[in-house]
Amino acid sequence: MLRTVRAVAGHWTAALPVLAVVLLALSWGRSLPGPAVALVACFLAGAVLAAVHHAEVVAHRVGEPFGSLVLAVAVTIIEVALILTLMTDGGDKSASLARDTVFAAVMITCNGIVGLCLLVGALRRRVAVFNPEGTGAAFATVATLAGLSLVLPTFTTSKPGPEFAPAQLIFAALAAVVLYGLFVATQTVRHRDYFLPVTSSGRVIDEDDHADPPTRRTALTSLGLLALALVGVVGLAKAVSPTIEAGVAAAGLPSSVVGVVIALLVLLPETIAAVRAATRDRVQTSLNLGLGSAMASIGLTIPAVAAASIWLSGPLVLGLGATHMVLLALTVVVGTLTVIPGRATPLQGGVHLALLAAYLVLAVSP
To answer: What residue ranges are annotated as transmembrane (predicted)?
Structure first.
């Protein structure tokens, strides 16, 4: 018995997805008391960590830059599922949930993950080195997608309020899909070397020297457990979402904080993975993870909510307010200046983290 317990403890990433789905089956459709909600929240966090772990295993098998793409898409699927789950039950009060969550993801990735990894990489080697061609292409795509999806709705006049008219929403969704698909083709086929880690002298590192790749069987097992973990995350999030919304309302915080909580929940494990890459002098891999997640967040969420708006009642608010547009503009300007040289000092990392801190303060106290 003790040996079995140790085996489960030593392979928690395999056990948690299964346990999360079992708990989901037991709690589905029921009103949960406080202790049960706490238990569900613990398994939800564990399922997110397990999902990212298995995504990393698959990523290690396929190599860079495919690995960063797998992890970013897996995390974004979690985010999209959480958004749609909450929007289905939220009514009019969730009209801006997609906007709030996507913008939170952009700020956390472009300023939090990027800033933290640049800071870690620069403190280790005095200067963090990355490929400006690949990073610049990724950042330009993120800025374009954010502008088309989150800024334009504030200024369009076909429909009152910061909303798209149906034709405009279709265009934004198609543009997001096309640009994201074009970037993936660029990253994995046409210019794969632009997204590989580089040494301080600029030499491309095309090998992964920190561990042997997992076997095909291990990768396929992780792929199955990843799918199981995603099912558990989506279902358990639906179970705890009323408690999250009630807690935000009871604390007197703006409803947009719910979007921040969702983004922090799904991006925390990926932040850990990006920082680990930075500590191994793989700053480019860290930037691939951060910017790839921002891009996937917009490129997958906007088309998903556009399709969901067909059956969802209530408005779909996508346009940012003036304060958030200022923060987005600062992020684009600072990010551009950071990317151009292909090298960053701790100062650049600190500037990005300051922008994230400003966003979090204004989210709580607008």
So the answer is: 12-29, 35-54, 66-87, 102-123, 135-155, 167-185, 219-240, 246-268, 289-312, 318-340, 347-365
